[in-house]
Amino acid sequence: MDNKVYVFEGKTSTEAIERGLKELKVSKNKVDIKILEQEDKRSFFSILTPRVVKVEMKLKEEQEDKSKEKAENRKVSTNEPVDNTQAIENIKKFLDEFIDKINTEKLEYKIKEEDNIVKVDINGENTGFLIGYRGEVLNSIQTIVSNVASKSSKEKVRVLVNIGGYREKREKDLQNLATKIAGTVIKTRKPITLEPMSAYERKIIHTKLQENIRVKTHSIGEEPYRKVVISLK
Q1: CA gap 64, 218 in Å, rounded
Q2: How far is the C-alpha of 18 from the C-alpha of 228, rounded, in Å?
Q3: pTM confidence score
Q4: In CATH, which of 3.40.630.120, 2.120.10.30, 3.30.450.20, 3.30.1370.50 is domain 168-232?
Q5: pLDDT category of residue 65 using cuts at 50, 70 and 90
Q6: What does the pLDDT read at residue 48?
Q7: At residue 22, what are phi and psi to the nearest 5 degrees?
Q8: Rounded to whole angstroms, how far apart are CA atoms 142 and 219?
């Protein structure tokens, strides 16, 4: 998390705080405030000098996390055309060698581009070991393939790897989970923090609940342990 601290000045603490809230464009309950210099700490010799009070402001975690989620969503929704020809060649070369080394029969892959995302679908018999518990192995493979794809590129290439249709099944499970947890939050009126998820999986939760008028979502923590929190609006 970005622990950036902002310092603002004013003739009084109230003036300094108001100036800070205005510049940060947030309400008072969205920041942590610490007064660095109190008005009553002025000496006799400083009475003729201009009064300056400094306050320290730091965005609360929820505000920072919202900024991160917005950045993640912007990356996913970008429509600017990207030439991924070399990236796809890199992926093909890697997968050919990878499949040959793991010596798995009847394993094949298909690559396509969609919304500037290089999507890799791997199918075959007994692919469970390539998926792992809740997709842990699959996510590791995706990280490797992403790095391979971006090897000759100035910018990171967006890659989505799917094995045996796992992504579709996981998406449905996460949507059902989001609905169920939202119901529990509404009933108990207490926020619930989900298990760590990838950015792709967190986005499924956020998207599923963004139209819910009674709950809201935000993320906390750092990768790869970043989690979604579901709470009442």
Answers
A1: 10
A2: 32
A3: 0.59
A4: 3.30.1370.50
A5: low
A6: 44
A7: -65, -45
A8: 22
